[in-house]
Write a structure and sequence with these properties.
Length: 593
């Protein structure tokens, strides 16, 4: 429950909706209660006037009396109708304030969570699955909205109605009020118990459903593998098992539902029987009128729905509390990638690694050991190494996706940590190993949020990445849609588009993480030569496991198990006759073969 305190700031922000909503709830309930008294007056009028009416049997006055009597009844009827109409109008206003407030809170909360997600470091996204992140920003926020919306609305309504109805009941008869209220706690508790059962089973169904959807999503994403390994039958059997589980869980919920509603109706019926029995005795004793009993029955029935809603409301609050706990868990995570000095200045591009060591926090794997390297401004350095030697880790550190666990990195002789994180990253062009393109046009993928980027710059970047000829061949050119809604580019085209995106931003430091692996050696040479031209006076770090990508660099650094084992130019390393030369010859033989 404590977790829900977090929402108070939003409730405070939209307090006027809440205050007005409460006022409208009081008014709408008043218009709901007054008709019960009108019914009492009308009924008592009928009972009393009928006796007098029959006394005047045959007299001319009887017709006159009938007219007055019929007019009064009609008036009561019209008044009741008017009250119902007014109640409806105010109920509409209640929803227009409290439910609207809940939608505003949902919107604000979603925005805050999304914004917060974006501040969190890469390690956070490694620890949590995308499904989990999505569930917290969608399903959990929806649960929380049910609390600040419908649950709050029914809660306020319940308090107001209880207070009003019980004071009206007490003003008529204390004894009858006590009898009437007797079954209500039982009703409330049983609704709560059954609701908790429903909630538990619904959650299980929800979990099973998300398992089922994940299975189906994965099966269709990997449909090519399933088909080529002729695993359709096996895949269907697995699906059937999951679906069977889902069916059984849904049936168990239906059982509870089917039992629940008749029990509620029975308990309400019991309250009504009590009113008629005890009230009937009171009428015989002359303490109450038939109008009073009718009024009471109306009151009891008025209380039933809110009492039923009490169980629902409490379980919604519980559900919201557990959802908010999950949301708070992420909101309380703070990024460790902060800057103390927030320096914002144009970079020149000199990079110094000083005894840098790095251990991945989640796996404990030490990816870099005592790494020392100085890259001059404008120099191009190739980092070469076997798989798992720590090359991508270097790229992550250069983009400040992680901070070194030992030593430090200096950029233009200033610790990287002192730069404002965003201002620093804006000057880095990063081409990741796993290319990621958005389901958008080619132009927007290159532009990527920089709305004021001139089209000529995009075109030049595309030409430098050797993608121009491919794009002009597409019927829609730069407006060609990619991803789910559009075409699928080949692996090499994707890599080149990703390079165009990085160079279009005119970065001071370019980090290419093995991003030429899917292009042929010829294209690789064209791109690297273009890169040499554009990156003149800028620094580039070219990470690769291919010698062909490395040999054009000013300097080559060979990495093994997170340590530098050789460095120098292509000619120097060839002369050294060690790891580089061995790799070069191996790859040359493979290429010739
Ligand atoms: N996010 C991560 N969390 C935990 N361990 C990681 C993570 N990324 C990499 N590692 C581990 O760190 C080591 C270095 O990985 P890295 O990706 O830097 O190698 P690499 O040289 O780029 O390899 P490749 O050429 O195959 O991409 C590996 O042992 C890897 O398993």
């Amino acid at each position: 429950m404590k977790a829900l305190k977090y929402l108070n700031q939003y409730l405070w922000k939209y307090k006027w909706y809440l205050i007005l909503g409460t006022i409208f709830t009081i008014i709408s309930n008043l218009f709901g209660i007054i008709p019960a008294q009108l019914v009492r007056y009308a009924l008592d009028l009928v009972v009393e006037t009928l006796d007098i009416y029959y006394l005047f049997n045959g007299a001319a006055l009887q017709t006159e009396m009938y007219d007055i009597f019929a007019f009064s009844i009609l008036l009561y009827g019209l008044l009741i109708l008017a009250m119902a109409l007014l109640k409806g109008i105010f109920l509409f206003l209640v929803r227009q304030t409290i439910i609207v407030m809940s939608r505003h809170i949902e919107f604000a909360l979603k925005n805050d969570i999304y914004q917060h997600y974006q501040t969190l470091p890469a390690s956070f996204f490694r620890r949590h699955s995308t499904g989990d992140l999505m569930a917290r920003i969608s399903e959990d926020v929806s649960n929380v909205r049910m609390y600040v919306g419908p649950a709050l609305m029914y809660g306020i309504n319940l308090i107001v109605l209880f207070f009003l109805v019980i004071s009206y009941m007490l003003s008529v008869s204390t004894k009858l009020t006590l009898y009437v209220l007797l079954p209500l706690p039982v009703l409330s508790i049983s609704v709560y118990i059954v609701n908790s059962m429903i909630m538990k089973r619904s959650q299980e169904i929800q979990k099973q459903l998300s398992g089922l959807s994940t299975y189906v999503q994965e099966a269709f994403s990997g449909i090519r593998v399933i088909k080529s390994f002729v695993q359709e039958k096996h895949s269907f059997n697995n699906f059937q098992k999951e679906a069977e589980n889902f069916k059984n869980k849904s049936l168990s919920l239906t059982k509870v539902d089917a039992f629940f509603y008749p029990v509620i109706v029975l308990l309400i019926g019991l309250s009504n029987i009590l009113v008629i029995f005890v009230g009937g005795q009171e009428i015989i004793n002359g303490n109450l009128t038939p109008g009073n009993i009718t009024e009471f029955i109306l009151y009891v029935n008025m209380l039933t729905w809110p009492v039923m809603a009490l169980g629902w409301t409490t379980s919604q609050i519980q559900r919201a509390a557990s959802s908010q706990t999950r949301i708070n868990e992420f909101l309380n995570e703070k990024t460790t990638l902060v800057s103390t000095k927030n320096i914002e200045k144009p970079l020149e591009g000199a990079i110094t690694f000083k005894h840098v060591g790095f251990t991945y926090p989640d796996s404990g794997i030490k990816a870099l050991h005592d790494f020392d390297l100085h890259v001059k401004q404008g120099e191009s350095v190739a980092i070469l190494g076997t798989t798992g030697s720590g090359k991508s880790t270097l790229a992550h550190l250069l983009c400040r996706l992680y901070d070194p666990t030992e030593g430090e990195i200096l950029i233009d002789n200033i610790p990287m940590k002192d730069y404002d994180v965003h201002a620093y990253r804006r000057q880095i062009g990063y081409v990741p190993q796993d290319v990621f393109l958005f389901s958008d046009s080619i132009e927007n993928n290159v532009r990527f949020g920089t709305t004021d980027m001139p089209f000529e710059r995009i075109e030049q970047a595309v030409k430098d990445a050797d993608l121009y000829n491919n794009i002009v061949d597409f019927p829609q050119g730069y407006q060609t849609l990619l991803g789910e809604r559009g075409i699928t580019l080949s692996g090499g085209q994707k890599q080149r588009l990703s390079i165009a995106r990085a160079i279009a931003r005119d970065p001071k430091i370019l980090v290419l993480d093995d991003c030429l692996s899917a292009v042929d050696t010829n294209t690789e040479n064209i791109i690297l030569n273009n890169m040499k031209r554009i990156m003149d006076q800028r620094t580039s770090v070219i990470i690769s496991h291919r010698v062909s990508s490395a040999k054009l660099a000013d300097r080559i650094v060979v990495l093994d198990e997170g340590k530098i084992i050789e460095q120098g130019t292509h000619t120097e390393l060839m002369a050294l006759n060690k790891a580089y030369k061995e790799l070069y010859e191996k790859q040359l033989v493979a290429e010739e073969a």
